[in-house]
Each structure stands twice: as structure tokens, then as C-alpha cells.
Design brief:
- With 223 residues, this protein is mainly beta.
- It has a single domain, classed as Jelly Rolls (Sandwich).
- It is built from 1 helix and 22 strands.
- The strands form 3 sheets. Strands 1, 3, 4, 6, 9, 10, 12, 13, 16 and 17 form a 10-stranded mixed β-sheet that branches.
Length: 223
């Protein structure tokens, strides 16, 4: 009887570990960074804070956060709101599912011994799925700085981008053919997520070389 009980306990423990939930950890932050608590109130973060599933993190103007997601690292850029939907190690795969409501993130997806990566960042219009190691993503525009990223629209049309390439989609068209991209950042209107009942954020991306630039205005509306 003891043998059966012991085996049962070991089996349950193994099952639990096989699908062990992980937590994101705030490695560092600058400026105003908040999380949406279970009581639906905004609270400031601190270095070393663990973020459970369903947590929304929000960065204000000129504010950033660096999160550890298992072996991977996520930089949350200013004026970003991001929800952690899933972070679990199961059957040899680290599965990460994030929802980018507004703003921009940089992901550095790293492997760990014995673990494959299934790393996805979704937005209201598209999904970026990693088969490589690093990319910048704001839900519309994608820039890959290392590895390969598969970019999918709402309609399921996808295209893969390699290191140094970029592309975009409005959510309904096939992501644009890969182009050699210049790494860039965002200029954003003064908007502080979490400070009130804001319904929209305007994101402006400027890229180009010394002879000129291209500016794209993107409106992302929160439900």
C-alpha cells in the first residue's frame, strides 16, 4: 500500500512539474511603471517583484521595465500596456503568451537546457511567433535583430523575417515582403497608462536616413 501511495505522490509531483507555471520577474525599471492588481487597481512595481498570470504591466512617459520570463528577457518600452497570458514549462517546452495592448516591446528569447521555446506576442491585429532570438514589435510593425520571427495577421496569413529585416501588417493583409530595416524607436504623445480611463494612445514611428524620414501614425484603441 505504501508503495502505491509513494508512486502516486511521485506521479502527481512529476505531473505538476511537467506543467509548472512560471512567473515573470521585474528585473529593473525606470520612471513610472505600474501593474493592475487583482483588485483592479494600479500599484507601483519594484525590482524583484513577481508577476503572476493575468497581470497587466503599464509604463508611463519616458518609463521602461525589464522583465525576466524564464530564460528570456523582455524590455517594455515607454507608453506600453502588456498582459501576461501564459508562462509555463510543459513537456520540454517553455510556452510564453503575451498580449500587447498598446506600445512596443523588445524580446530576447533565450533557450535553456532541455527546453524548447514557444514564444508569442499578440496584439489586436497580429501575432509575432519566435523561431529565433530577438525582435522589436508594436503590433503593426516588426523588426528582427536576431534569428527568425514568423509574423501572422488576424486572417492567418503569415510571413517569416530574418535578422535585419522588417515588415508590417494592418491585421487583414498578408504581412509585407521583408525589407532591410534600420533599427528605430518610437516617439509618442504624452500619455501615461494607468493614470486614468484613457481610451486611446497615439504612437508615432520615425525611421529613415539623413536624407529624409517616414512617419507612421498608429491609433490603438483599448476596449
Amino acid at each position: 500500500m505504501k508503495t502505491i501511495t509513494t508512486l502516486l505522490v511521485l506521479f502527481l509531483l512529476f505531473t505538476a512539474l511537467a506543467g509548472a507555471q512560471n512567473q515573470a520577474v521585474v528585473r529593473s525599471f525606470t520612471g513610472k511603471v505600474e501593474i493592475l492588481t487583482a483588485q483592479q487597481t494600479w500599484a507601483p512595481v519594484r525590482a524583484g517583484l513577481s508577476l503572476g498570470l493575468g497581470t497587466t504591466i503599464s509604463t508611463g512617459f519616458n518609463s521602461t521595465a525589464v522583465l525576466e520570463l524564464g530564460p528570456s528577457v523582455l524590455q517594455v518600452k515607454p507608453l506600453t500596456r502588456l498582459r501576461i497570458n501564459e508562462l509555463v514549462a510543459r513537456e520540454g517546452t517553455m510556452k510564453t503568451d503575451l498580449f500587447l495592448q498598446v506600445g512596443k516591446v523588445r524580446a530576447e528569447v533565450k533557450t535553456a537546457a532541455g527546453l524548447k521555446q514557444d514564444f508569442k506576442v499578440k496584439s489586436p491585429v497580429s501575432t509575432a511567433a519566435v523561431r529565433g532570438t530577438g525582435f522589436d514589435y508594436d503590433g503593426y510593425d516588426l523588426y528582427v535583430f536576431e534569428g527568425i520571427v514568423t509574423y501572422s495577421s488576424l486572417t492567418g496569413q503569415s510571413r517569416s523575417y530574418s535578422s535585419g529585416e522588417e515588415g508590417s501588417t494592418d491585421g487583414y493583409d498578408t504581412p509585407a515582403e521583408a525589407e532591410e530595416g534600420l533599427q528605430s524607436d518610437f516617439g509618442v504623445d504624452p500619455y501615461t497608462p494607468g493614470a486614468g480611463n484613457e481610451s486611446a494612445a497615439k504612437v508615432t514611428r520615425t525611421t529613415g536616413i539623413a536624407t529624409g524620414s517616414v512617419t507612421i501614425d498608429i491609433e490603438v484603441y483599448n476596449p
